[in-house]
Write a structure and sequence with these properties.
By secondary structure, this protein is mainly α. The longest helix has 26 residues, at 88-113. The chain is globular, with a radius of gyration of 14 Å. The chain has helices spanning 3-23, 29-34, 36-55, 58-63, 69-81, 88-113. It has one domain.
């Protein structure tokens, strides 16, 4: 695995996190609960963030310890394997609280890769 591959993966994580946050701009938790398309889209975007996190090399993860690798992978696993019990409150909190912080960390990591 090359450093270039990890940079691409960090960019993918950033792009999908940004899309999830943007998708909820102007929304309230009740909007998520009544909009099935929004639910499915956010689940998929957060799954992708976690899936890509599993593909960043061990070395790449060590270079960016501020990124919550384990939490991203764990959220992906919960969404994939618990597809029938997705807690929309947790999904909302993830998009509103966790992803914005992750976006900052990913941007910093990408700046350091250049």
């Amino acid at each position: 695995m090359t450093r270039h591959d990890d940079t691409i993966r960090l960019r993918h994580m950033l792009d999908h996190a940004l899309e999830a946050v943007e998708m909820t701009r102007g929304c309230q938790p009740a909007d998520l609960k009544r909009n099935r398309m929004l639910q499915l889209a956010l689940v998929r975007l957060v799954e992708i963030v976690g899936e890509v996190a599993t593909r960043v090399s061990h070395e790449g993860q060590e270079q960016h310890p501020s990124i919550p690798w384990q939490q991203a992978r764990g959220m992906r696993n919960r969404l994939i394997h618990g597809y029938d019990t997705v807690d929309l409150d947790v999904l909302w909190d993830t998009t509103q609280d966790d992803l914005p912080a992750l976006i900052v960390q990913l941007r910093q990591a990408l700046e350091n890769c250049q």
